[in-house]
Design goal:
Blueprint: E1 5-12, H1 19-38, E2 46-53, H2 58-71, E3 76-78, H3 83-95, E4 103-104, E5 122-123, H4 129-142, E6 148-153, H5 156-171, E7 178-182, H6 193-200, E8 206-210, H7 213-225, E9 232-234, H8 240-250, H9 254-258, E10 261-265, H10 276-288, H11 308-325, H12 336-341, E11 368-373, E12 376-379, H13 383-387
Parallel strand pairs: 1-2, 1-3, 3-4, 4-5, 6-7, 6-8, 8-9, 9-10
Antiparallel strand pairs: 10-11, 11-12
């Protein structure tokens, strides 16, 4: 931090098969930060992002974090993408806790940054994977689809979601009927037929996927092609628009691939302009059209005008600005935690008030559900009509 700027450190996936997640999150956050900077900043300080690419891999994320803390001396860490990266970064924050560097609003719903021993070093905005998986399981069980299988990424993210499904099923007296994994970084062009065959043997009523968009789109494609005709659900992390783009651009019968698809989300629909924050998001995305810095754009990528991920980044940035505004003058990292704890029933503009406190380090709790209609994700209102 200087007299003229708050510098926030961000390490995220800007390359590789999951690059759409980091890029969209960055674009949404940059739209709001750009708006704030155009209007004088926060206490006359502009907000700057020191941004590094980790490709959704733990080791580069650790190296980037060390650089951000010790060399760039950022004021805080913001907008990290993914469980496998965040879980490796959290011990660093504990190790360097005398520097009072906190991680704000990572794009992951996993438990490690929500509970001891590392929960004290992070603040979350989004609902957790436990809440997402519980909602999916509860809705499937309610319509009689009790035999649930899991397809998941073989790492901390996948296991976190797997544990959430198992925990939710146990409340209904059920267990996971089948499971198959894939390796992080798997591309859409890879064959997932072996995983589909494994799950078919368990005769599931539904499959819950815990993964990123490339592999999950490939799984949906191969599942439908091999006759696994059951609902396939994805968590919010998947990157709904990128998943749908792969299925609609590369598969001739895209409707067949998306007919039984359901994705949980942790932000409302960006199509719903009755929501004040959505109207603000759409206006500022159009006004600023934020682009990734050229030095980080290593592979071609066509951004979406709107996406669930960029809307989440936008809301993350909006709350981040509110926290910075609550700091005393002159601002100090030592005061960050207390500033966050003063956020009580804050109106973020989405109809759910945000509150934090010593025993509450997650701001939002709501989970939304979407299905595909006319090649776009829309709100799912009636599970029985869709899947029963």
């Amino acid at each position: 931090m200087t007299d003229t700027a708050f510098t926030l450190g961000m390490s995220a996936a800007f390359s590789g098969p999951s690059r759409g997640l980091g890029i969209e999150l960055y674009r949404g956050a940059s739209a709001y930060f750009g708006h704030v900077n155009d209007n004088g900043g926060v206490g006359a300080r502009k907000i700057e992002l020191a941004t590094y690419d980790d490709g959704y891999q733990p080791d580069p994320s650790v190296r980037n974090t060390v650089s951000l803390m010790l060399e760039d001396d950022v004021f805080l860490l913001f907008g990290y993408v993914g469980t496998p990266t965040v879980t490796r970064v959290l011990p660093l924050l504990k190790k360097f806790q005398d520097r009072n560097v906190y991680l704000f609003f990572p794009f992951t719903g996993a438990q490690p940054q929500r509970e001891p021993p590392y929960g004290a070093f992070a603040f979350n905005l989004r609902a957790s994977y436990r809440q997402e998986t519980a909602g999916l399981v509860d809705n499937f069980v309610e319509i009689g689809r009790r035999r649930i299988a899991v397809f998941y990424q073989a790492d901390a993210y996948g296991r976190s979601g797997w544990a959430g499904v198992r925990r939710a099923l146990a409340r209904h007296g059920e267990t996971i009927v089948g499971e198959a994994t894939y390796r992080r970084g798997t591309k859409f062009t890879a064959s997932l037929r072996a995983q589909v065959e494994i799950l078919k043997e368990s005769s599931p009523d539904a499959v819950i996927c815990i993964g990123a968009y490339a592999a999950c789109a490939g799984f949906v494609r191969d599942a439908v092609n091999l006759g696994l005709d059951v609902p396939i659900a994805n968590l919010s992390f998947v990157g709904s628009e990128n998943l749908l783009k792969l299925l609609t651009e590369h598969e001739a019968d895209s409707a067949g691939y998306t007919r039984m698809l359901v994705n949980s989300q942790v932000v409302p629909s960006y199509e719903d302009s009755s929501i004040p924050a959505v109207r603000e998001y759409r206006e500022l995305m159009a006004q600023h059209d934020p682009q990734l810095p050229s030095d980080l754009l290593k592979e071609p990528y066509a951004p979406f005008a709107h996406s669930f991920v960029s809307l989440e980044g936008f809301l993350d940035a909006k709350l981040m600005v509110e926290v910075l505004r609550r700091l005393p003058d002159p601002p100090n990292r030592h005061d960050l935690e207390e500033a966050v704890f003063t956020v009580r029933d804050f109106d973020l503009g989405i109809g759910e008030p945000v509150s934090f406190g010593p025993g509450r380090r997650q701001g939002l709790q709501q989970v939304y559900y979407t299905m595909v209609e006319d090649d776009r994700f829309v709100t799912l209102h009636d599970w029985s009509a869709k899947f029963a």
